[in-house]
Amino acid sequence: MRRMPALYPLPFVPGFQDPDDPGSDPLCFAFRGRELLVTPEGRLPSVEQIDTHGVEAIRRQYLGTLEGTHCYSLELAPKLAPPGGLEFRDLRMLFGKLDGNHHAVAGRAVQIVEWDRTHQFCGACGEQTVLAEHERSRSCPSCQFPMYPRLAPAMIVAVERENEILLGRSAYFPPGIYSMLAGFVEPGESAEEAVIREVFEETNIVCGDVEYFGSQPWPYPNSLMLGFKAQYASGDIDTEADELEDAKWCPANDMPNTFPGNISISQWLLHDFLERNQAK
Ligand SMILES: [Zn+2]
To answer: Which tens digits make up the pLDDT trace of 156-184?
Structure first.
């Protein structure tokens, strides 16, 4: 049975104060832009492998511990050639190759690197910022403006009508692929309100009985994806007003092609729907 991953125990303990002794072989998540430095097999290189090639980081951040091992992120130069035998790969391409826990920490790491890189100067007054000692933040010594890593909450929803589910496709999806409706939560609205608004905006369908399903960090670039189930209330599908190329009600026993794999909350929601409806 496919479902969301178990949550206990949490293998990663976040931290922000660099320890005096990082241990003999800490984990290094080195990024060139949003690409992670990995071996050809898609594994994390050892510190020795990184050091051997004289790779120098522009900035380095302490992340915390993964099952007791200290973890660091490194910001590398944007045009750095991959050091001997190693490769730069997009995190999304490393699902299923990189160890699952390493992939999860890499998703944190890339966001911390990017936050640190883009908050060196105060957004309010332009002064150079400083790293806080007691928490993961930067602040402005001149106007005290605080800067925390930012998350963009987004929602994805399985709208159901008896044994059918509402799926849509964007023009940029691969040909023939359908997926669940999703969108960003706007300032001032709840996630449940975002569900109802997005479904209506994209398809002209009114839905209700919005029920929380689960969440997933989605570091592309900095989302927290909140999954919901909802029930059809009224309306006929009309995609004219929005960016969707098509939307349709799909019976559980006659599904269109969807994104392959079992890595995202969209897929967990779909499996949940199919498990409840395919046998009917
Ligand atoms: Zn300032």
So the answer is: 999 999 999 999 999 999 999 999 999 99
Looking at the structure, do residues 113 and 156 belong to the same domain, yes or no? Answer: no
- Of 241, 226, 233, 222, the closest CA to residue 180 belongs to 226
Which domain covers residue 107, as residue numbers?
12-118
Centre of ligand 1 to C-alpha 145, Å, is 5
pLDDT at 243: 80
Distance 116 CA to ligand 1 centre (A): 16
Using the predicted structure, report yes or no on whether residue 208 has a pLDDT greater than 60.
Answer: yes
Distance CA 40, CA 174 (A): 27
**Cα 143 to averaged position of ligand 1 atoms, centre (Å):** 4
On whether residue 127 sits in a domain, the answer given is no
191: enclosing H helix or E strand: helix 191-203
In a domain, 108, yes or no: yes
Count of domains in the chain? 2
Q: What is this structure's pTM?
A: 0.90
